[in-house]
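Notes continue from the previous slide.

Worked example: a multi-chain complex. Inputs as given:
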Amino acid sequence: MVKHKAKVDERECLSCGGCISVCPVDAVFMKNLRAFVDQSLCIGCSICVNTCPIGAISLEE
Ligand code: SF4
Ligand code: SF4
């Protein structure tokens, strides 16, 4: 089974912090005013993907 992980397109991120506040496992953090996902923590729930107002997060294999 392929497990998906969230990834932020850092060129698009607006640093709104929405994804950080919704992640159930605290896998998202801010670095240089851009959101990053710690893929070792991400469980692929896609909540952040659906939360990002500009669609900057996608799930990747
Ligand atoms: S997909 Fe879920 S677990 Fe992974 S970073 Fe987004 S909210 Fe967190
Ligand atoms: S929700 Fe989207 S725009 Fe906001 S910090 Fe996360 S990735 Fe960036």
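Summary box: The pocket of iron/sulfur cluster (ligand 2) is lined by residues 8, 13-19, 35, 51-52, 54, 56-57 (CB under 6 Å). The mean pLDDT is 96.
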